Amino acid sequence: MRRIFATKGIAGRSGEPIVGKAAQKTYGRRPRPVLLYPINVDDAKAEILASLALPVPGPGAMHFPVRVDTINDEFFAQLCAEHRETRYKQGRRRHPTSCGSRTGTGTTCSTPRCSP
């Protein structure tokens, strides 16, 4: 049995749990109920960036497989392309991630893996 979860990344929920409570939604031509889990992408990406910044591999560090074709220099360039910025919106401090000139799909793809 495969465990596949429907997720939706939601920004601007800093301080809330990374994985929220599932809501039952219906999608498609023949609507069936689906459990949709909201993902707090701000805190998830912050946790990923913090685990990448650890100087010594061990507990809490992110480990990568050695013999996988998709894990190459381009993947690591995309993974490290994002950084946190401090911005203010309506008087509140926010810490969104910004990619600069590169795409940060590596961090975006790693976000669901961060969930417990």
Which SSEs are present, and which pair or pack?
Blueprint: E1 6-10, E2 23-27, E3 32-40, H1 41-52, H2 73-79, E4 83-84, E5 87-89, E6 92-94, E7 97-98, H3 105-110
Parallel strand pairs: 1-3
Antiparallel strand pairs: 2-3, 4-7, 5-6
Question: Would you kindly provide a written description of the structure presented here, covering whatever features stand out?
Answer:
- With 116 residues, the chain is of the alpha+beta class.
- The chain has one domain (6-114).
- It is built from three helices and seven strands.
- It has helices at residues 41-52, 73-79, 105-110; strands at residues 6-10, 23-27, 32-40, 83-84, 87-89, 92-94, 97-98.
- The strands form three sheets. It has a three-stranded mixed sheet with strand order 1-3-2. A two-stranded antiparallel ribbon has the order 4-7. Strands 5-6 form a two-stranded antiparallel sheet.
- Strand 2 (23-27) and strand 3 form a beta hairpin.
- The longest helix is centred in the middle third of the chain and has 12 residues, at 41-52.
- It starts with 5 loop residues before the first strand and ends in a 6-residue tail after the last helix.
